[in-house]
Specification:
5 strands, 265 residues, 10 helices
Length: 265
């Protein structure tokens, strides 16, 4: 039995930490991190296979963060697993700190990729999924890892993600599960002002298994990951409809949610 009350509190902790880091640095992007906290919390606490004692274990699952500006979400999650201290979170975006604005690869701390340009994390994940297939062909079930990726609206729009998405579908990379944090908001506009394509149909056309869920609901996230893990022929895209800046309030109590300003407030 999953304790969703506990899960929601853990996700709220990630949200609060992410907002606090940005607030203290007076720089950064809290909105996406607050909306994506539910997915990353369920993934890390219930599904991601890794060895806390040996972060470099070759057979581990991989998690690739595409939107590097959502680093507060990843640092907060890793802090809950003991990889970062609260003092290190307080140093977010400061010169020489271990918590830069965009994560730098640090396997020992659970950061699998350096992420800056949007869309690049998508390609890292596809490459890792191809490499994992190669290793599994050599070593069978010893190398049974799953590759997880996390992408945002901006990453979905980038051309580099299109090419990697096509090859992943063509190769049938069923060991690749990508969560698309679809919150309809970007830095200066709503996404509908710049893109009107049907993302689900696009990935289906490339041969992906596509699931659409409420990306802030732990039960729906859990069910989608299980369904994606059971897929044996195609990579899976989980489109999570999320609330950007979930839980954020102004001083007067009104909502900051789904507000363009919150993306980089």
């Amino acid at each position: 039995m999953n304790d969703n009350k506990l899960m929601n509190r853990a996700a709220d902790n990630i949200r609060i930490l992410a907002a606090s880091m940005v607030e203290k640095a007076n720089s950064g992007h809290p909105g996406g991190a607050m909306g994506g906290a539910d997915f990353v919390n369920v993934l890390f606490s219930e599904f991601l296979v890794y060895d806390p004692e040996n972060p470099r274990w070759e057979g581990r699952d991989r998690f690739f963060l595409d939107p590097g500006h959502m680093s507060p979400m990843l640092y907060s999650t890793l802090a809950l697993t003991g990889k970062f201290t609260l003092d290190e979170l307080k140093e977010f975006r400061q010169w020489g700190s271990p918590t830069p604005g965009h994560p730098e690869v640090d396997i020992m701390r659970g950061i699998e990729n350096t992420s800056g340009p949007l869309g690049q994390g998508h390609t890292f994940a596809v490459g890792a999924a191809i490499a994992a297939k190669f290793l599994k062909a050599r070593f069978n079930e010893v190398m049974n890892q799953t590759i997880y990726a996390y992408i945002s609206d901006g990453g979905i729009q980038e051309e580099i993600s299109q090419g990697s998405g096509r090859i992943a579908g063509a190769l049938g990379l069923d060991n690749l599960i990508m969560f698309y944090d679809s919150n309809d908001i970007q830095l200066s506009t709503e996404t509908k002002d710049v893109t009107v394509e049907d993302t689900a149909m696009k990935y289906e056309a490339w041969g992906w298994n596509v699931l659409t869920i409420n990306g802030n609901d732990a039960d729906e996230i859990r069910a989608a990951i299980k369904e994606a893990q059971a897929e044996k022929e195609r990579p899976t895209l989980i489109i999570g409809k999320t609330v950007m800046g979930k839980g954020a309030r102004k001083a007067d109590g009104s909502s900051y949610e789904a507000n363009c300003a919150t993306h980089g407030a």
